[in-house]
Design goal:
260 residues; alpha/beta; 6-stranded mixed beta sheet; 4-stranded antiparallel beta sheet; 9 helices; globular
Length: 260
């Protein structure tokens, strides 16, 4: 279990994170949700070990890792731009990290992971021959072969369209369940967080606006910010869908050959 305890962070006398606390267990998916500039990426970097908190602590399986270096934490991240090496094939990208640490995953384990992410037909392709969803799956595989203790994903769906996005969501949930892997996802999109996560931390101006299950956030928003940020965006999406079908209905009702 990873425990985030009273984390704060100050840059140039400006407090960008204020007393953030939450827990995440093996196999659980937590989303850190909020508008741009709210502090969610700063929190992700503190968990990964890129940044040190100004206050608070991180406890992993009972051990204080607040001052442990990033490379010694055993956490890993998938960035929103995938970060694949363009001159390597998909397979070469997947096993790249094993060159220096071949004992981490066996060839059989790599094969199992490739099949889990349905990448068998794409192993000889270079990144520019892959779709966005295929690149995302390769990036996931490359990270998972290193057997991270916690997996962090930074805006993992930002470059994907709707259909591919849903497929990747299913793969991420499958990975979390199969490997009992704790995942922390940073996103600005309420729909992504609500449909993917076990629990959600909503941040507003560095503060924890609400932390809870999707059901609680939808039906029991903690304050006006959560209500406006979550529910209003869902209402906008629902309204767009309604208008789409209304327009389709109006078009179907126009007699053939009539002026429009």
């Amino acid at each position: 279990m990873l425990q985030i305890r009273h984390i704060s962070k100050t840059f140039d006398n400006k407090e960008v994170l204020k007393d953030i606390s939450f827990d995440i267990s093996d196999g659980e998916i937590i989303s850190i949700l909020g508008p741009s500039g709210c502090g969610k990426t700063t929190l992700l970097n503190i968990i990964l070990g890129i940044l040190q908190p100004t206050g608070g602590s991180l406890i992993f399986n009972g051990e204080d890792i607040t001052d442990v270096k990033m490379e010694d934490r055993g956490f890993n991240i998938v960035f929103q731009d995938f970060g694949l090496f363009p001159h390597l094939t998909a397979y070469e990208n997947i096993v790249y990290g094993l060159h220096n640490k071949p004992e981490i995953s066996t060839e059989a384990e790599v094969g199992d992971l490739i099949r889990l992410l349905d990448l068998q037909e794409h192993l000889d392709k270079k990144p520019d021959q892959l779709s966005g969803g295929q690149k995302q799956r390769v990036a996931l595989a490359r990270t998972l072969v290193m057997k991270p203790k916690v997996l962090l994903l930074d805006e993992p769906f930002s470059a994907l369209d709707g259909v591919i996005k849903e497929s990747i969501k299913e793969r991420i949930q499958l990975v979390a369940n199969t490997f009992h892997l704790a995942m922390i996802i940073v996103t600005h999109d309420p729909e992504e967080a609500l449909t993917l996560s076990d629990r959600i931390l909503i941040i507003n101006e560095g503060n924890a606006a609400q932390y809870g299950q999707p059901h609680d956030i939808i039906f029991s928003p903690a304050n006006d910010f959560v209500r406006k940020f979550i529910l209003r965006q869902l209402e906008i999406k629902r309204g767009n869908i309604h208008r789409l079908f209304e327009n389709a209905g109006e078009a179907a009702a126009v007699p053939e050959g009539a002026a429009v």
